[in-house]
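Action item from last week, closing it out:
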Amino acid sequence: MNIPNNFNGLPDGGTSNNTLVLLKAALDSSVSGIIVTDNALPDNPIIYCNKSFQDITGYRFEEIIGHNCRFLQGDDREQPERFQLKEAIAKGEHVNIEIRNYTKSGELFWNELFVSPIKNASGEVTHFIGVQHNVSRRKKAEEELRHERDMIERKVNERTKELKLSQEYLDSIVQTVRESLIVIEPDLKVQTVNEHFLRTFKVSRVETIDQELYKLGNGQWNIPRLKEMLEDILPTNNPVLDFEVEHNFPHIGKKLMLVNAFRVELEGQYKDRILLAIEDITERRAIEQRKDDFLSVASHELKTPLTTVKAYVQVMERMMHPESTPQFKSVVTKAGSELLRLNKLISELLDVSRLQAGRADIHRELFNLNAMVKDVAENLQTATLSHKIIISGNIKQPYNGDELQLRQVVSNLISNAIKYSPDAESVEIFLSQVSTFIKVSVTDHGLGISLNDKKKIFERFYRASNIQKHFPGMGIGLYVCEQIVKHHGGDLWVDTEEGKGSTFSFTLPLKSEGDY
């Protein structure tokens, strides 16, 4: 197996035997199939091939040397790439093609072929080097991808046809939805509305369809908040969910609306349309406000007589005769315990009232969060014999926040962990610093929370179904905790599985927004 001395452009006689041995060894170790042809001999025969070329083609060395490389195409001689290769060799140019080749056993393989001319000092092409890769797997994958794409296109076309055929059926559903629906075009002209919209806003179809949204009803829909949504937010192609818009309409008065908007980008006549779903929440919000007002007034009114009753019970405890009956002592003790529980419930109601009214001010100051958590845990540990509270981890720097409010959060989470894991023996608290946030996690091994309840667990007055059956409460503790954490710029969440316990975690930024 002789390699020409002028290989790679080296002058004749300028390559030592050691260099040639190393060069041949390098070529033989390549995973690419490599051949060298002699352009000075008739039909440009192959004068060298490496081991990988033999492995790819299945031919032995002696079956390859002397042949023109076209023998690999067998009878498949009408490939356009063959003529492309022939033309490049005739012109002494580089060429890169993908061509069908066949092994000695007749098996088809796709060959990615790179051919480069080798020239002597006079610029004459003396040899060609061919480097080939078996790309059959890639070609097969591309073919499967094309097939899959064709199948998907056919399915899309079929589905689009089905959608068009179902248009009347879908329209009938839209008309029965008890929510105002508007479909508008890219230029914000109304394409269609449902009957609920017409009834709610007391307009006719004639004065609505094909009219610009902002001009409906003498400009009554020219609402700044709505324009902000349609012109600034919606063009990002993200859906807009639960966007509140309040407006005073001339004929129906002030309305508070919850707007959801989606871009409809199906093929055909619905391309680039915008669907607006408008829910009138005016009455619902008014009911919620009346309920909040009642809670605020009731909790404040209850606080004063409760304080008086609590004072009387404390006087009774101090003045109790040492020889009082055990039953009497038990009644006084239980009265004090229930007064504490009632006081806690009223305090939580007051917290909710302040949060809803936006009066929950944060009084920030630096404090040791490790020490605060440890103090809360020790106080709760003295009150429970059923669980061991275990603290691990550490927060390396002080936190600038409202210690009293965050103490309430930690206390609530630990108390819940104890309360809702009656058969467990421990509650674990883990403190850590994650990037520029601190993280506190409280883990119990109790009832856990179902997936459906998990979505609503932080809502006001919501209680999980399995908890409501066995444990009394109002369902406001977690709501208060979440609001306190949010007001500190953090996040509170739960990882849970029904029957396997829960981990409530919250993060707090070590820097406020103005510090970045």
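Closing note: Residues 375 and 407 are 9 Å apart (CA to CA).
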